[in-house]
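2024-03-11 09:14:02 INFO worker-7 job=invfold-0412 stage=load source=structure_tokens
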């Protein structure tokens, strides 16, 4: 079974690509949801945040406020790394369990949709990394379409790894800059390449 890490910047279209891959026969799961679940009250991420940051991240009812956690860790790399050191091993173990489950079910490809693959330096956990990229203006428009603010979108995009740098670390790149039908064609082309038996470690080859 091919283990794929699917990533991309804010509103690049990676969830749409994930849905298309599922339709083609891949087992797909949201690795970011694993992290969100761990921040639920009583979860390991919530307990780690409480232990590391104390009252600064607590709501009035004593539960962990993820927004406050984000404000702290994105403004202080050292504190972010401290939290990640607690969380990443747990996320990695759960991701491995999901892959094993997909393989046991006979899936030819299993895809973990994850926004922080490059930032967390977990590329080695996958056989291939698929990066979805899109023009910034289109990404901002999609963010606004979901109720977000343009300024917030551009701030988040600026804080992420630039697409040019991400391309150098991906095996496959899909550009989401046209119609939905064109995107589907690109996904199907990539799927056919995977099914034909891709080389173990090629240079990025899909644009």
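2024-03-11 09:14:09 INFO worker-7 stage=emit residues=207
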């Amino acid at each position: 079974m091919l283990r794929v890490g699917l990533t991309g910047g804010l509103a690049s279209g990676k969830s749409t690509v994930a849905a298309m891959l599922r339709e083609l026969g891949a087992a797909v799961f949201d690795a970011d949801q694993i992290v969100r679940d761990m921040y639920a009250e009583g979860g390991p991420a919530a307990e780690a945040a409480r232990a590391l940051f104390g009252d600064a991240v607590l709501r009035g009812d004593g539960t962990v406020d993820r927004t406050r956690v984000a404000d702290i860790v994105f403004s202080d790399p050292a504190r972010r790394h401290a939290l990640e050191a607690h969380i990443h091993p747990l996320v990695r173990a759960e991701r491995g369990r999901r892959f094993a489950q997909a393989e046991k079910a006979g899936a030819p490809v299993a895809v973990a949709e994850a926004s922080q693959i490059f930032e967390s330096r977990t590329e080695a956990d996958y056989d291939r990394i698929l990066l979805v990229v899109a023009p910034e203006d289109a990404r901002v428009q999609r963010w606004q379409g979901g109720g977000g603010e343009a300024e917030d979108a551009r701030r988040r995009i600026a804080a992420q790894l630039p697409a040019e740098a991400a391309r150098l670390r991906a095996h496959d790149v899909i550009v989401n800059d046209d119609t939905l039908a064109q995107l589907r064609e690109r996904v199907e082309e990539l799927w056919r390449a995977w099914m034909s038996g891709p080389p173990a470690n090629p240079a990025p080859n899909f644009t």
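2024-03-11 09:14:09 INFO worker-7 stage=report msg="Residues 77-104 form the longest helix (28 residues)."
2024-03-11 09:14:10 INFO worker-7 job finished
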